[in-house]
Amino acid sequence: MTERPETAARLARPQPQADDLSRLMARLHRAGYHAAEVPVLQPADPFLELSGEDIRGRLFLTTNEEGEEWCLRPEFTIPAALAYLKSGIVGRRLDQVFVGPVFRHRPGESGEFTQVSLESIGRNDREAADADVLAEIHGAVTDVAGESGLGITIGDLGLFSSLLDALALDGVTSRRLALALGEGRLGSLLDAQHLAERKHEPRGLTRYSGVLDALKGADPEEARAFVKDLLSMAGITAIGGRTAEDIAGRFLQRARDDAQQLGPEQAEILRRFLAIDGDPDRVAQALRHLAGEARLDLSAAIDRFEMRIGFIEARGLPLAKIRAAAGFSRSLDYYSGFVFDLRLEGAPHPLAAGGRYDRLFERMGRAVPGIGAAIWMDRLVREMAV
Predict the structure, then answer these.
(1) How far apart are CA 223 and CA 218, in angstroms?
(2) What secondary structure does DSSP assign to 250-309, as a single string?
(3) CB under 8 Å to 270, separation ≥6 — which residues?
(4) N or C: which end of the chain has fewer CB within 10 A?
(5) Which residues contact 240 (CB under 8 A, 6 or more apart)?
(6) Helix (H, G, I), strand (E, B) or coil at 368
């Protein structure tokens, strides 16, 4: 029987080696991470509720006889967090390492892959914990693949959150911008707004700006009744085939849109923030410069950023090899602070990545600090073969 060329090529590539995985796991055990497990089959609701809006299309879902949705585990973090809350040790530190297959649709890659996942929960020294997880993940990856061509990118979603607070944006706008950052489209969103501002197109409701201002933040039903009453007093029942109800609805939508619009100065500050990128120390300096010029109080968030840089350097990671980017984010919705990834130069996907997920516990009603990271073994092996 003749072997197909693609099969021969696949078999010729280095496969995940037990000794590589054992060496990697032994290092993490020595660092104090204890082996742990969670079931492969998981209830789907926690992932759908906590991971962000696009996760459903990436899950392998099934339904049991009661009609409940279950899935093959797409990652280890959410199951680890749920197990911690049920353990009876909330408030105590727990460092764990998980290894095994996870299942998630990935364009151009296998939907089943082996993942090594570090989860450090309960440490209140957040910046030191962030540096420890980054250092251990970096050490584990370089033990297997070496350091040649491997780059580290770091960011801090706490900086962005503090910036949104300092700009005094409404909750809807802040949420929209945070989602755009996580999805990597915030720059495009700001560019689109800039083009719209430059068009100076007349807007048909501008002369009613006082009414629009009154409607912002009002109860929808009361606002609709208010607009209908105004139209009724003016003797207006319909215009161009539109009823008073339709016109009132248009006023309300315009008021909502205006409430969610960034001012030109706010948009420019966000564009400058996204452009800050480079050596970690210089990034911190650029952030302080921006905050000073814009008269925004970001000092606490920048202090934490600089403290983390100090811990990272103390762990032996040379800052010259680390790129910091104010606009760097990760797609999962539960990340709330430090984020990072490790990838080879020019590679489309990271070999390892992680971040702080205090927000995950907040959404489950608890104030628990957590930081984790994952290594994708299939990518690691694939890059070793190149």
Answers:
(1) 6
(2) HHHHHHHHHHTPPPHHHHHHHHHHHT-EESHHHHHHHHHHHHHHHT---HHHHHHHHHHH
(3) 163, 167, 177, 186, 190, 262
(4) N
(5) none
(6) coil
Q: Which of 121, 146, 157 is nearest to 373 (CA)?
A: 121
Which two structure tokens, joined as six digits, stand for 375?
């290594």
Helices within the chain (DSSP H only): 5-12, 18-30, 45-50, 77-86, 126-145, 157-166, 171-182, 186-199, 209-215, 220-233, 244-259, 264-274, 280-294, 299-314, 358-363, 377-385
List the one residue out of 169, 166, 157 whose CA is nearest residue 126: 157
CA 28 to chain centre: 25
Query: Is the confidence at residue 200, as pLDDT, over 50?
Result: no
Distance, CA of 181 to chain centre = 8
Q: Are 338 and 346 in contact (CB under 8 A)?
A: no
**Residue 158 to residues 87, 220, 330, Cα–Cα distance (Å):** 29, 33, 13
Find tokens 């560019």 and name the residue: 191
Among 312, 305, 264, CA closest to 134: 312
pTM: 0.79
What pLDDT sits at residue 51? 85
Reported as a pLDDT band with limits 50, 70 and 90, residue 11 is very low
Give the residue carrying structure tokens 């105590």: 92
- Other C-beta atoms closer than 10 Å to the C-beta of 354 total 27
Per residue in 287-307, pLDDT tens?
999 999 999 999 999 999 999
**156 - beta bridge partners?**
338
